[in-house]
Amino acid sequence: MVRPRNINRVKLKKEIPDWEQEEFESRTDIKKAAQAVTDLGEQLAEMTESEIKKLQLPTTLADAIFLLKNMDKGPALKRQKLYIGKYLRQDEALLREIKEKLAAVETKKKQQNAHFHKLEKWRDRLVEEGDTALHEFLEIYNQADRQQLRQWIRNAKKEQAESKPPKSARELFKYLKALDW
Fold it and tell me: N or C: which end of the chain has fewer CB within 10 A?
């Protein structure tokens, strides 16, 4: 009996699921997409515990993320990251939902940051320009306490001139932040 050559060396091609063939042009793209999902899991692990709880993740995923947060360096850390990535890839609806929630959180942070920059600009203008900026501010925000603002502005200028810590400027910023915008 003659044995055909290379029968033991036949390579079996690993089949790629249909959804991966349709969505991606190459295996490299598939690997990059899988790595992006794993990176998303790492991004989740970098969040605080309260932020993770606000996302209302399934308990299995949340527990896996909390476990990852508490792990030290080593091969188990890599396995846990891969496990989270695999879990996320298995449920595309969950993955989309998490991405939307993270985008909403990021948008909220940007809006809050822009709001704080606006407040900082007002505080700086009030300290530098004095009554001119104060009158403009009070035209826009008439519920503000003029006397208290003037006192903080006066004290902030004095602290600046004496190179003291900006206690009054901080108080002024807190007041501006507390105003109903």
Answer: N
Amino acid, res. 37: V
pLDDT in tens, 20-70: 445 667 788 888 888 888 888 888 888 888 888 888 888 888 888 888 888
Residues comprising the chain, all counted: 181
Among candidate residues 75, 55, 74, the one with its CA nearest the CA of residue 65: 55
Is-above-0.85 flag for pTM? no
Domains in the chain, please, with CATH?
18-94 (no CATH), 112-178 (1.10.60.30)
| Planar angle of CA 79, 29, 104, nearest 5 degrees | 75
| Cβ atoms 85, 105 nearer than 8 A | no
